[in-house]
């Protein structure tokens, strides 16, 4: 596997191979921070309506949402470049003194990278004890804070395709500027002979996305306060085999290190943003903090069984 670094301002882009998304090292000072974002999505096991009585309106993705590469443990999450020694000018050696104030050491932080999904995540396990809930996904990644007025979204999905496929998405893509045909029984494409297919034939067509599949995006931003922006589609199949789309579009001011809850009648999103120190780890083997348990005991699966407008944690 061939790797190389390209310096462009303060961002070092790390290209791993031609068919993968580049990874980025961001040059920061040790007193700066980056953030880990944890996202857990679950659904409520509810009967689904008919498309004739339900307004399917999937959310449209931003064109520049990020598809993050998987973290390769061969690449350290933090690199500490050695500062270049300062040599006194030969003509000024008699007047040269040791600087009183030290400049903060620089660090290269690997950002916009996803960690391995954990099907045994403690929050998923806690949710699974309630028969009315169906845990769907856990995703975790590392990033710097983005701008509040222009947040950078990360793809959170069980069905989204690779970036090059998204660029060439057709009418069947999960996010589309027009409502997909399967979401609207009155919008049917013509058969090859130019005739309009019957509703029976239309509804007997296999749905594009499987039952309980997800496609959406999440952004973390910071201005004066820290915020999470969540746009998520849940795809369900009703008893007639019709595809139903439920959507969440919310943004909220959040506290670091605490689980936040974004609610919909049919599903919910739990998210937590954790500040990551850029100080050298005492034990390099534990450089990537994998303990996500903080605050899990505050999540009450019984309260999550029904649609609510308040956080399920204390």
Gap between N and C termini, in Å?
A: 47 Å
What is the H/E order? EEEEEEEHEEHHEEEEEH
Domain count? 1
Helix content: under 10%
Biggest beta sheet attributes: 5 strands, antiparallel
Give the amount of beta strand, in percent: 25-35%
Main structural class: mainly beta
Shape: elongated
* Total beta-strand segments: 14
Contiguous uncertain segments of 5+ residues: 1-9, 13-20, 176-191, 289-294
Summarize model confidence as the mean pLDDT.
76
Order of strands across the main sheet: 1-2-3-6-5
Q: How large is the radius of gyration?
A: 24 Å
Number of helices: 4
Notes on the structure:
The protein has 314 residues and is mostly beta strands. It has one domain (4-78, 102-304). The protein is 7% helix and 33% strand. It contains four helices and 14 strands. The strands form three sheets. The protein has a five-stranded antiparallel β-sheet with strand order 1-2-3-6-5, with no helix packed on it. The two termini are 47 Å apart.
SSE blueprint:
Elements: E1 4-8, E2 11-15, E3 23-29, E4 33-44, E5 78-79, E6 106-111, E7 113-115, H1 122-128, E8 133-143, E9 153-157, H2 163-167, H3 199-203, E10 213-222, E11 226-237, E12 243-253, E13 260-263, E14 267-277, H4 301-304
Antiparallel strand pairs: 1-2, 2-3, 3-6, 4-8, 4-14, 5-6, 7-8, 9-10, 10-11, 11-12, 13-14
The gist of it:
The protein is mostly beta strands and 314 residues long.
Task: Jot down its keywords.
single chain, 314 residues, mainly beta, 5-stranded antiparallel beta sheet, 4 helices, 14 strands, 7% helix, disordered N terminus
């Amino acid at each position: 596997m061939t790797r190389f670094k390209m310096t462009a301002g303060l961002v070092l882009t790390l290209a791993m191979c031609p068919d993968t998304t580049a990874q980025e090292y961001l040059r920061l000072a040790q007193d700066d921070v980056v953030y880990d974002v944890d996202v857990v999505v679950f659904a409520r096991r509810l009967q689904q309506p008919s498309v004739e009585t339900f307004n399917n309106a999937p959310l449209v993705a931003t064109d520049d949402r990020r598809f993050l590469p998987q973290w390769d443990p061969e690449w350290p999450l933090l690199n500490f470049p050695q500062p270049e020694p300062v040599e006194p000018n030969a003509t000024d050696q008699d007047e040269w003194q040791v600087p009183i104030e030290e400049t903060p050491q620089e660090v290269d932080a690997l950002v916009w990278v996803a960690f391995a999904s954990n099907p045994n995540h403690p929050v998923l396990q806690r949710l699974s004890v309630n028969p009315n809930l169906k845990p769907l996904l856990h995703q975790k990644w590392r990033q710097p804070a983005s701008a509040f007025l222009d947040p950078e979204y990360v793809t959170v999905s069980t069905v989204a395709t690779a970036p090059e496929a998204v660029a060439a998405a057709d009418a069947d893509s999960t996010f589309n500027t027009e409502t997909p045909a399967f979401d609207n029984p009155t919008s049917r494409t013509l058969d090859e002979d130019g005739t309009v297919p019957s509703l029976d034939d239309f509804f007997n067509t296999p749905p594009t996305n499987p039952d309980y599949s997800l496609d959406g995006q999440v952004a973390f931003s910071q201005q004066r306060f820290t915020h999470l922006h969540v746009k998520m589609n849940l795809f369900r199949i009703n008893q007639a085999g019709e595809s139903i789309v439920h959507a969440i579009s919310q943004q909220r001011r959040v506290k670091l290190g605490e689980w936040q809850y974004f609610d919909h009648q049919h599903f919910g999103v739990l998210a937590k943003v954790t500040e990551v120190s850029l100080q050298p780890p005492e034990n390099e083997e534990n450089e990537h903090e994998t303990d996500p348990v903080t605050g899990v005991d505050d999540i009450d699966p019984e309260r999550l069984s029904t649609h609510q407008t308040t956080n399920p944690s204390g």
